[in-house]
Amino acid sequence: MMKVFVTGGTGFIGANLVRLLLKNNYDVRVLVRPESNLDNLKNLEVEIVEGCLTDSNLYQSLKGCQVLFHCAAHYSLWQRDKPLLERYNIIGTRNILAAARKAGIERTIYTSSVAAIGVKPGVAVNETYQSPVENLVGYYKKSKYWAEQEAHYAVQLGQDIVIVNPSTPVGSWDIKPTPTGELILRFLRRKMPAYVNTGLNFIDVRDVAQGHLLALEKGKTGERYILGHQNLTLKEFLELLSEITGLSAPQKIIPIWLPLSVSWVDEMILAKLGKSPSIPLDGVKMSRQPMYYNASKAVRELGLPQSDIKTALKDAVNWFMLTVDC
């Protein structure tokens, strides 16, 4: 039985990956921070070790494992969180890859993001495209870019690392929740009277988990693979939610200047006065153009599944209805 080490196992993608690994008879060890919410790991037969990505003795926790799945990252679009994004996404990735090298890990699957790739107006980009880092909107995207560079550097040092870049996963175990989960919750709570004219690439989160396992089995060292599926406008996404739930989809489009103005006041003025901002400025800036991707490389080389997005949305809705006050 192969022993694997998973970071980020308490999160959305990580929780689905841990379940898939257990289903496929892997022996799973999960790194959790002392303050982590462990609900996503409840009743699972995993070995839990406490620690942080920046611990100096992290290699001790990896000893005895053959494979590392590094899924953990700090996700935030708030500008105030730049120090945390640098600490956990960049320095944390550098540290755990060095720890894996010291512990003798044979292969690492590093979970990057399409955020690190960037977007190109009017084009669904693939792995060959790279937006200049200065054009990536917000420090979250920049931090994922620089973290991915840490992985490429580690490959140059001789480590066997495969990079996967999930797009926008949808499904169960979105415990935090992600921004997409927040959108679904707002829809279910009837707190979404309008929408912005944007678009995203969506994928069933179980397909993302499968993509990680396929990357372990078939991925090429140093390569990156977009784990995505269907490009949808936000309007199309909301209409799918309407079909599933029977709730009306919003019909009004918000001009982008309105949320930009609100978010600027929120972060630049109210937050400095001690009030909690409600809309991240960088999140609004990202929505100014569709974020579309082409996952054909992962489909062709890894066999990435392309499950029905409507099914994934049904799973997400059912999970939120059972676990959250909607």
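The record above closes out task 2.4. Task 2.5 opens with a second protein, given below.
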Amino acid sequence: MEFLHRALLQSGGTPWALGRKYAKPVCFAGISFYKSLDGKEVQTSVAQIFDEIGKGVILRGTPAQIDKDDRQPHLDETAAYQLLLNSLTEYRQAMGTSPSRLVIHKTSNFKPAEMEGFSRAAAEFRIDNLDMVTIMHTDIKLMRKGQYPPLRGTCVELDPKNYLLYTRGSVEYYKTYPGDYVPSPVLIRLFRNDENPLKICEEILGLTKMNWNNTQFDRKWPVTIECARKVGDVMKYLPENVPPQIRYSHYM
């Protein structure tokens, strides 16, 4: 089963995809950070910048800096602009079209300079609908009456810009929780959203099933974040003068 699944991917097939819910093309992009082999420089990797069918490209980004306030990696305005501009350019060349809506996922908060850079790049491609979403770990846990953890898909609004989402949890179909440890939700922060917040959370839940590199039906992190991390682990060994492969199946 796993061999057939991997062979399908590497031959350009599509094992599964999000349902066709959109009248216009939607593009999801995940940004993650990794250190160079010598540990001296923090760089960025962009996971598959892809459509709802899972087709897209992967790019290596520019160096990032650790912010002195939150100790997280961030891009300046120019780096954010260039990173997204290059990604959208490659996406259009590979897909033959530009998206009408773009959703950016990141594991650190969006700084004003990053938001400005991303917005400028999106504007150049005439993308009017833009969502900038931080998805991060939280120590908050919810309690559910009975023996099992909260249901997968449980979403709680903390305030209009912050939500808890159980991407792993009990599954009503199985009447149990198919996991080994007590699950915890992810914290979703909306720094800019032109789409309804609950729709954004629903998309994140669907994207946890889009990691084609395994056969597990649910993952804690959406493919945008998980694949960005995995690709970064590979790219750190790639010399800077060597262009990376843009197909995700190459990294499996």
